[in-house]
Every structure is written in structure tokens, then in C-alpha cells.
Specification:
The structure holds two protein chains of two kinds. By secondary structure, chain A is mainly alpha-helical. Chain A has 13 helices and four strands. Chain A has one domain: ABC transporter involved in vitamin B12 uptake, BtuC (Orthogonal Bundle), CATH 1.10.3470. In chain A, the strands form two sheets. A two-stranded antiparallel ribbon of chain A has the order 1-4. A two-stranded antiparallel ribbon of chain A has the order 2-3. Classes of the chains: A mainly alpha, B alpha/beta.
């Protein structure tokens, strides 16, 4: 009884933990980074201008709107939920900003109200999911429709011009040689990445997504997690909406249409499991870059839009299949 | 063992299974005769599961021969094995929760009319089967609405729905109460009488001794010996199984035991939840192990859930003499209560995650500052718990789901020990755990009590309750029937309280 052999625990824990980390990083992102590389090589061969710094900036800027929405989406999917209202919130955000300016508000208050609107729309999603116990898929299909309809309320469906110099500068200007949009994406990536990987809130997200009931029994307030995370998704979508309207100098009623699907695709390409509990912001960022590279590369090759849709869908299927397969092998 | 046995229905000869360099099973030989119960005994990881999977057609053996009724037996899938006359009642529940009992029992073999499943025939056939077996389950109930124990009975009905010559039970009683186990034993008796061969896998020595005709011990993937149940003892079997002598099953109390005259840590008075339990009152002292015994449906698990804030209940709970309201698990944990739940897969662990986050998950405030995790503290704690509980794992970053049942259960314990609980509720702490891990868990429980933790231990294994408790509380039909010091109890007295026979 006194001599159970396993009490002599392995001495190599620390060293191997570090190696494991590197290996797991490679295992986690190896496949998808390879996919990104293959795409880049392919597009550079097709059009040498693809590999230029200027074009990379371009890809990054184009990808910003989707990447930021995808950061929010990653939280939601990690929790085992889904948010289909993201595209509509993007449009609402632009319109709210435009209307604030139409009322003569300044930049700061308009920005604040816009962000708040996004968060409140997320709050509604979260409350309906957590408190009425409705599946988030159904809730956000409904709010996707509701929010999309609300975009047209102020203008009866017409686009609204935005002339505020600060708002439009976000999409047009640069800071220290880099477009402001890129600074924003990088900053938001860091905030989301650190929050997810370093904070108790991030940890609780993983645990709740991994096993809701076990999380509940461990004292994690699962309902509150849901509500806060849908608010994060709404907030991220609102920021996406601000960037989009700033680049377009206007709020369009059909802005961000079907962007939720690109955001989901970016997260899933990045290795986020739709079952919840597995995924990272790094993966999502790479996933968004793949989608950006695809869009940009095919535009440069003058591929018609409908072909682009088909190719994008196929790439997603192949990439996710490769990913799933390699993980199964390693498991 | 070597010459072919004419009376055998199932024979395994020198069966081996390797996975790459890993030898999971070697030189496994088994002779199973009709009308007899043959028990396979071994710790988790001894190779029983591999053997089951070979018999079920999940794995093909790397070497050796299997014959069923004299013909070579090479099943391609569990369905194929069943069709050839070998049925398996699985330990892990394989039922679809959103289907009815009837649909589950006859899954993939639903009676159909013109391609459409005939509900009427389905229900009739399932009902006939359930009645034949004498199961207290409605065939039209949804599995999701059944208790774990009832689900297990459905699983058994499903396994027996084929006309089998050999029936394998893989730990069928691990989630059954004693009275439900009795139903199962009756079923096994009936199968025996019908001349069927039964292969029985269990960790519960008492029932093994009672049921078995032959017992084969395996250890580390290797065949050790086959003995007749009549000619052996529990101690002998355990010694064979673990390869070392077990002088006693339950470790003795460490130190002087609880101080029952001082004020209790936890005092519960008149706790009531209509329909579940009523007027539950008891005291729990530091260092005390209060065993809670009751049959399934006695309300014992519901009381534990209420104490942990997972169910609303009226009544008074005092911690260290101060009234406490416990409205959620968060509050319970803040009050220093830990809860090792009955069901580790569903309520205990995130199986897809590593050990480290599982161990820290109930004590995140201890491993963080201003909302940021302190990975160093977390790792140190996880490592300390792994060492303290002798959890067999390569690293704290191993995925929890890959561990054996006993080690998973220790991870659940580790998770609660990491919260430094004053009161630890254990609901079926050794369910589905092999004997070796069981003893280690008992030792840990003793150790915790000696360190002053107040322990509330729910178990449906009577020997476990009597072997560890300082006092025993018996519940029946939502009421506390008695709270009595261990010394004054016999198994018979406890059972008579539990069945409501004594006032």
C-alpha cells in the first residue's frame, strides 16, 4: 500500500512541456500556414504584383473588417454558440454613425454611441440565448433579419453619406507609415489574444465551451459568460462596421451582407471547433488572411465574382478537411 | 487450457493484440462454457477493454484464434458479433438521449413496413423484451428523462435484444443501486438457466464472488490464471489482480478521529425540497467522514446538489455556526464547499482539455490576479496534485480524456483539493474505478479527514460506506432514517433503514 510506483512522478515535466508547446503550435497552425503559403505562391506566379508590400497592405486593409468580426466570432464559437447577426450589426453600426453626424454630433460621441449600439445588440442576442434558453443559431438568424431591417429605418433604404473628417480618416490615412486600419486590427488582435489566452475570462470561455455542465459545477457563471461574449461579438462587429463605413465614406443598407459567414470561415479555418472549447485568436487571424488573400488574389486575376464564391467555398472545405485529418493523425 | 474443450461455447487461444510497439494483450486464453458465469478480473488497463473490443469486432487480434461453437469467430463489427451470437452490454452508455427506450433497444433493427418504421410493432416488440427481463422502465419514455441507473437497464435490454449465445456484461452495475443490481442479477440467473454463457466484468468483489462460476484474472495484458469462484477468496483474488498483497481493503483511520464534541463545520436543519427530500437535518464536524447511504431515488444526490447551490431548497444551512445562503456553485465554493459529482464525464471534467486547466478550474481566483492567470502557480498546483494523488499521466498537459477512469476520478478530486475545501462532498467517489485506484482514493479520503476536512460521502456501495465512515446517515424516500455511529451498524441494519423497513 505504501509503495505505489506512480508517486515517483516524471522529472522531465518542465523540459517536455516547453517542447510540447512548440510541437503543438506547429501541429496547430502548420497546415493552415502551409495553405496560406501555397495560396501566396500561386497568386504571385499568376500576378507578380501580388507579392508587393503595397498589395500586402491592401490585403490587410481588406481583411480588417472580416478579421475583427472574426475575433468576436471566435469567442462565440469557443463557447459553443454561433452569431449570425454579425453582418447586420456591421451595417447598423455604419448607419448609427452616419445618423449621429446627421444630427450634428461630433466624432467622439458618435463613436461611443456606435460602439454602444453594437454591444447592446450583442446583449440582446446573449439575453435571448442565456435567459430564454433559445439556441443561438435561431436567435441570431432572427436578429440578423431584425437588425438588417433596422438599418433602413432612418433613410428608407437609401445610403447615408458620412463626411466627418476623423471618421473617414480611419479608412484613408496612415500612422507611422502604416494604414490606421492595420494598427486597429493589430491592436484588437492583441487585446483579444491576450484576453483569451491570459485571463481567467478567457480560460472560463474555453472551459464553458468544453463542458458547460462541468463549468457550472465548478462555479463558473455560464449565463453571464454567454451574455458578455455576445456583447463582445456585437462590439467587434460595430468596430468592423465603423471601418467599413469609413472606407466607403457612407453607410450602406446592404453593408456587411453575409460577412458573418466569412467571419465563421476565418475562425473555422483557423482551427476553432464549432463544438466549442477549442480555438485561438492566432488561428483566426491566419484564417482571415487566407480569406483576404483569396479575395485579393482572385480580384487581381480578374476572376468573376461568382467564380470567386465557388473557389472560396472549395478552399474552405479542403483546408478544414486537411486540418481535421492531420489532427486526427496526430491524436 | 491447451486441448480443445468440447463443452466450451467460446474459446480463445493465445490471443495477442499489439498497437505498434505497444502490447495490449498477450497470451490470452479463455474457455467459456454454456450455463456458467465467467468473470474477467483485472485493474483498468489490464487489457479487459482490449479483449472486449476484439470480441466485439472493433479490433482484429494480432495473433491467436477465437472459436465460437467450434467455428472460427472473426467478427467485423459489434453488429456482426451480435448477429453471430455474441452480445455485449457496454459500460459506457451508448444510447441516444433524444430517442425513446424502444427506439434505442431496437436501434438499426427497427421493424419496418414498406421502408417506414412501424411504431406500433417497435413498441410491442420492445415491451415484450422489457417485460421478459422484468425491467422497471417504460418503453415509450425518452432516454433523456431516465435516471442513469434506468439508462443502464435499457442498455442491458438492448444488448439482450439479440438472441445471443454468449452475453458479455462490461461493468453493468457501476451505476446501479443495490436494488437495481438485484434486477440485473436475476436477469443473469435467468440467462444461465437458459444455458447461455455469461462473461462478466466488474470491480465489485462481493458481487463477483456471488455471481461467478469461473474467474479469470488478467494483469498488465497478460493471462494470470483461471480459478473456480467456490475455491477462492476475495483477498486471494485481489492479490492475484494487483500482484501484491492487500492486507485490508479499507485503510484505517489516521489519528484520533473527528472531535464530535466541538461545534460542527456544517449544520443543516430542516432542508426541504418538495418532491425530492424533506426535513433533512445533520451536523458535520471537521475531520469527520459522514457516509450517506440510500437507494437510487432516496434523494441523497438531490440533497448534495442543494447543499452545493445547484438546486433551490428551503431550510437552514450553517457554516461554522454562521447562517449561509448558498444560491449557486460559485457561492458554495466561496464558502469552502467542494463537490465531487456523481458523473465525472458530464459534471466533473472537460475531457477534451489537458489536466492542468481541469485541476485549476474550480479555483481560478487562487491562480489569478486582477483577472490575469498566473500560469506558474497553476502549473505548480497541478503538478503538486498529480504527485499527491499519484495520478498516472505523462504530464499535466496530457488530455484528460485519455486517462483511465480511476485516474480521471483522481483529477476530479484534484480539482476540488485545489480549492482547499473545508467541506468536501463526494458523490459515488469510486464509481467505475478499478480496485487499485479505489484503494488510493480511500487513502486520500482518510488523509483529507486527518487534515481536518469535513467529508460527506454518498455511496451506493454499502461496504464502502461502512468501511470508511465515522457515522452513517441513511436516507429513504427523501427522508433521513437514521444517523448512527459506524460501530453500531451492521450491513443488515443499514439496508433495513434504506428500504424503509425500520423506523
Amino acid at each position: 500500500m505504501n509503495q505505489t510506483p506512480a508517486t515517483t512522478s516524471r522529472p522531465t515535466l518542465d523540459r517536455s512541456a516547453r517542447q510540447d508547446l512548440f510541437r503543438s503550435m506547429l501541429r496547430q497552425y502548420g497546415g493552415i500556414l502551409l495553405a496560406l503559403l501555397v495560396l501566396c505562391i500561386f497568386f504571385s506566379v499568376a500576378n507578380p504584383r501580388f507579392m508587393s508590400v503595397a498589395n500586402f497592405m491592401n490585403v490587410f486593409q481588406q481583411v480588417a473588417v472580416i478579421a475583427i468580426a472574426a475575433f468576436g466570432m471566435t469567442w462565440v464559437i469557443l463557447l459553443g454558440e454561433i452569431d449570425l447577426s454579425v453582418g447586420s450589426i456591421i451595417a447598423v453600426a455604419g448607419m448609427v454613425g452616419a445618423q449621429m453626424f446627421a444630427l450634428g454630433w461630433g466624432f467622439a460621441p458618435a463613436l461611443l454611441v456606435t460602439l454602444l449600439t453594437g454591444a447592446v445588440m450583442g446583449l440582446v442576442n446573449g439575453m435571448l440565448t442565456a435567459k430564454l434558453l433559445l439556441p443561438s443559431f435561431i436567435v441570431t438568424v432572427a436578429t440578423m433579419s431584425i437588425y438588417r431591417g433596422m438599418v433602413s429605418l432612418p433613410t428608407n433604404g437609401a445610403p447615408a453619406m458620412i463626411t466627418d473628417p476623423t471618421w473617414t480618416a480611419i479608412g484613408a490615412n496612415a500612422f507611422l507609415g502604416l494604414p490606421i486600419i492595420i494598427w486597429i486590427v493589430v491592436a484588437l488582435f492583441l487585446v483579444n489574444h491576450i484576453a483569451l489566452s491570459r485571463t481567467t475570462f478567457g480560460r472560463k470561455t474555453y472551459l464553458t465551451g468544453g463542458n458547460r455542465e462541468a463549468a457550472l459545477y465548478s462555479g463558473i457563471k455560464v449565463d453571464r459568460m454567454k451574455i458578455v461574449i455576445f456583447m463582445i461579438s456585437g462590439l467587434m462587429a460595430a468596430i468592423s462596421g465603423i471601418l467599413l463605413s469609413s472606407r466607403l465614406y457612407s453607410a450602406q443598407t446592404n453593408a456587411g451582407m453575409s460577412y458573418e459567414l466569412d467571419a465563421i470561415a476565418a475562425a473555422v479555418l483557423g482551427g476553432t471547433s464549432l463544438a466549442g472549447g477549442v480555438g485561438t485568436m492566432v488561428g483566426t487571424l491566419i484564417g482571415a488572411l487566407i480569406i483576404g488573400a483569396l479575395n485579393n488574389g482572385m480580384n487581381m486575376m480578374s476572376v468573376p465574382y461568382f467564380y470567386q464564391l465557388i473557389v472560396k467555398g472549395l478552399v474552405i472545405i479542403v483546408a478544414v478537411w486537411l486540418d481535421v485529418r492531420s489532427k486526427r493523425k496526430n491524436a | 487450457m491447451s486441448q480443445p474443450d468440447a463443452s466450451a461455447v467460446l474459446t480463445l487461444k493465445d490471443v495477442e493484440k499489439t498497437f505498434g510497439p505497444v502490447v495490449a494483450l498477450k497470451r490470452m486464453s479463455l474457455t467459456v462454457r454454456p450455463g456458467r458465469v465467467h468473470t474477467l478480473l483485472g485493474e483498468n488497463g489490464a487489457g479487459k477493454s482490449t479483449l472486449m473490443k476484439i470480441l466485439a469486432g472493433v479490433h482484429a487480434p494480432s495473433a491467436g484464434t477465437i472459436t465460437l461453437e467450434g467455428r472460427p469467430f472473426v467478427p467485423l463489427s459489434p453488429q456482426d458479433a451480435a448477429a453471430r451470437g455474441l452480445a455485449i452490454v457496454f459500460q459506457e452508455l451508448s444510447l441516444c438521449n433524444n430517442l425513446t427506450v424502444a427506439e434505442n433497444i431496437l436501434a438499426t433493427r427497427e421493424p419496418a413496413v414498406a421502408g417506414f418504421i412501424s411504431d406500433r410493432k417497435l413498441i410491442a416488440r420492445a415491451r415484450q423484451l422489457v417485460e421478459e427481463l422484468g425491467l422497471p422502465v417504460s418503453v415509450t419514455a425518452r432516454v433523456a428523462d431516465l435516471s442513469i441507473a434506468q439508462r443502464q437497464l435499457v442498455e442491458i435490454a438492448k444488448g439482450l435484444s439479440h438472441d445471443a449465445k454468449v452475453v458479455i456484461f462490461d461493468e453493468p452495475t457501476s451505476s446501479l443501486s443495490d436494488s437495481e443490481a438485484e434486477i440485473l442479477f436475476r436477469i443473469i440467473g435467468r440467462l444461465k438457466a437458459q444455458g447461455k454463457a455469461v462473461i462478466y466484468i466488474s470491480h465489485r468483489m462481493e458481487e463477483i464472488m456471488r455471481l461467478s462460476d469461473d474467474i479469470t484474472v488478467i494483469r498488465d495484458g497478460e493471462y494470470i490464471t483461471t480459478v473456480e469462484a467456490r475455491e477462492t477468496t476475495i483477498d486471494h483474488l485481489i492479490a492475484l489482480m494487483v500482484g501484491r498483497r492487500m492486507d485490508e481493503i479499507y485503510p484505517p483511520r489516521i489519528g484520533d478521529g473527528p472531535k464530535l464534541h466541538v461545534a460542527p463545520v456544517l449544520a443543516v436543519k430542516g432542508l426541504t425540497r418538495m418532491g425530492d427530500f424533506e426535513d433533512v437535518s445533520f451536523d458535520l464536524h471537521a475531520g469527520e467522514i459522514l457516509g450517506v447511504f440510500g437507494l437510487v431515488g432516496s434523494g441523497r444526490s438531490e440533497v448534495m446538489n442543494a447543499l452545493f447551490g445547484m438546486r433551490r431548497a428551503s431550510g437552514e444551512i450553517r457554516l461554522d455556526g454562521k447562517p449561509a445562503t448558498i444560491g449557486s456553485a460559485t457561492e458554495a465554493i466561496r464558502h469552502g464547499i467542494g463537490f465531487v459529482t456523481e458523473n465525472r464525464k458530464e459534471q466533473g471534467l472537460v475531457l477534451s482539455h489537458a489536466l492542468r486547466p481541469n485541476i485549476s478550474m474550480a479555483a481560478l481566483p487562487r491562480f489569478s490576479a486582477k483577472g490575469f492567470l498566473k500560469p506558474r502557480d497553476e502549473c505548480a498546483e497541478a503538478r503538486a496534485e498529480v504527485a499527491r494523488l499519484a495520478i498516472r499521466t505523462n504530464s499535466i498537459e496530457t488530455i484528460t480524456g485519455t486517462l483511465s477512469g480511476g485516474n480521471q476520478q483522481k483529477v476530479v478530486l484534484a480539482k476540488w483539493l485545489a480549492t482547499h475545501p473545508r467541506v468536501l462532498i463526494l458523490d459515488e467517489p469510486t464509481r467505475g474505478v478499478d480496485v487499485g485506484a479505489k484503494f488510493e482514493i480511500y487513502r486520500i479520503i482518510r488523509q483529507l479527514a486527518a487534515e481536518g476536512t469535513a467529508i460527506l460521502m454518498v455511496s451506493s456501495e454499502l461496504p464502502e460506506v461502512l468501511g470508511l465512515s465515522d457515522r452513517v446517515m441513511v436516507m429513504s424516500e427523501g427522508q433521513v432514517k437514521t444517523i448512527t455511529p459506524r460501530e453500531e451498524l451492521t450491513p443488515e441494519r443499514v439496508m433495513s433503514f434504506a428500504t424503509g423497513g425500520q423506523k
